[in-house]
Design brief:
This protein is of the alpha+beta class. The chain contains nine helices and twelve strands. Strands 10-9-8-11 form a four-stranded mixed sheet. The model has no long low-confidence stretch (mean pLDDT 95). The structure holds N,N,N-trimethyl-histidine and fe (iii) ion (FE).
Length: 370
């Protein structure tokens, strides 16, 4: 019998898997294997990758066991296999895919029985259950990637928990809040789960600035489009009378003017901020202001910052999570979206994507020098 933290870990792993399976429950195998977009993986790839990543860390690395299916891991290496190639790979599909997911999970729970996840554990991977937290976050994060793809599936019935998140939109406050200049501690504290890119926590000197109290609502983005001819967000379609509809998942629903704008590229977000006589906040400003803000949680927010290492960064536990992406190709997003599991949300969390991407659930809030 597992007790205490191990039982809690097993429950959390179960909950994560239930959510993954809930997402694909309305779909058939053809839909799981289908390539809906060259920039998004087929759902079957995400599913196999989730299970293979679990096998790699929680069975092979921690349990010192051999992989179930030899070289399978290469197919699910995200760096080796760019998204556009994933549809053609000989990945696991259908019944074989489902049994692999179940078989890996069975071994994961066996290994869990044998390890020490206490704060005194010698292995930093196991100490306070770090590697389990990482695997939970990984599955949750892939659920969000899957939800990005699911926006392309006509008629897809969104699970109720997400419908509810989308429906709760606090009315936007168009004012700004003043944040004092000074030294701010940025990044995750040394203890507790966080990704390597959030560490080490370090002081950052900020000049005084103002930042929007709410994310930019659709009504403001529409005004920007009308005045400048800027491109609409992804999934906005014409209603035939000069207005716009939300067409995600093949729907045709009125755009809620009060909801935060979503599915913007970084370029659209940056263009909006300039048009408004403002700018995107830096990721440090965003983190420093975060406790005073509302409306976090509908869409990720683009910042003006490139995805760079914090001073003193050390890759842990693998270089391909963060380090491989550092540089000026990727922009940082902060906050969380309606599709983000609450366990992934924390003030120091750094998301990143290419500035031209619009399939992510991303909007913005503006800042300006005070
Ligand atoms: C943090 C969302 C940019 O999807 O590339 C998943 C998360 N890393 N598996 C990504 C991730 C490895 C990552 N993002
Ligand atoms: Fe992954």
């Amino acid at each position: 019998m597992t007790t205490g933290p191990k039982a809690a870990i097993a429950d959390l792993l179960r909950e994560a898997r239930e959510r993954t399976l809930e997402l694909i429950d309305p779909l058939d195998d053809e839909q799981l294997n289908r390539v809906y977009s060259p920039i998004l993986s087929p759902l079957a790839w995400d599913l196999g990758h989730i299970a293979n990543f679990e096998e790699l860390w929680l069975v092979q690395t921690i349990g010192d066991r051999e992989p179930l299916r030899g070289e399978l891991g290469r197919l699910y290496d995200a760096i080796e296999n760019p998204r556009r190639t994933r549809g053609e790979l000989p990945i696991l599909r259908d019944a074989e895919l489902r049994s692999y997911m179940t078989d890996v999970r069975e071994r994961t729970l066996e290994v869990l029985e044998t390890v020490d996840v206490s704060p005194e554990a010698e292995d930093p991977l196991l100490r306070e259950g770090f590697v389990y937290e990482m695997l939970l976050a990984h599955e949750h994060q892939h659920n969000e990637t899957m939800l990005q793809l699911l926006q392309l599936v006509v008629g897809y019935p969104l699970p109720r928990r997400y419908e509810e998140r989308l429906a709760t939109v606090p009315p936007p406050d168009l004012g700004m809040v003043l944040v004092d200049g000074g030294s701010y501690e940025i990044g995750a504290p040394p203890r507790g789960f966080a990704y390597d890119n959030e560490r080490p926590r370090h002081p950052v000197e900020l000049a005084p600035f103002e930042i929007d109290r709410s994310p930019v609502p659709n009504s403001s983005y529409l005004q920007y489009m009308e005045e400048t001819g800027a491109e609409p967000p992804m999934y906005w379609g014409r209603d035939g009378e000069g207005g716009w509809l939300d067409t995600a998942r093949g729907r045709r629903e009125p755009i809620d003017p009060e909801a935060p704008a979503i599915h913007l590229t970084w370029h659209q977000a940056d263009g909006f901020a300039r048009w408004a006589g403002k700018r995107l906040p830096s990721e440090h400003e965003w983190e420093a202001a975060r406790p005073q803000l509302d409306g976090v949680g509908h869409s990720w927010e683009w910042t003006g910052s490139d995805f760079l290492a914090y001073p003193g960064f050390e890759a842990f536990p693998y270089r391909e999570y963060s380090e491989a992406f550092f540089g000026d190709d990727y922009k940082v997003l902060r906050g969380s979206s309606w599709a983000t599991h609450p366990r992934v949300v924390r003030p120091s969390f750094r998301n990143w994507d290419l500035p031209a991407r619009s399939q992510i659930f991303a909007g913005l809030r503006c800042a300006r020098d005070a």
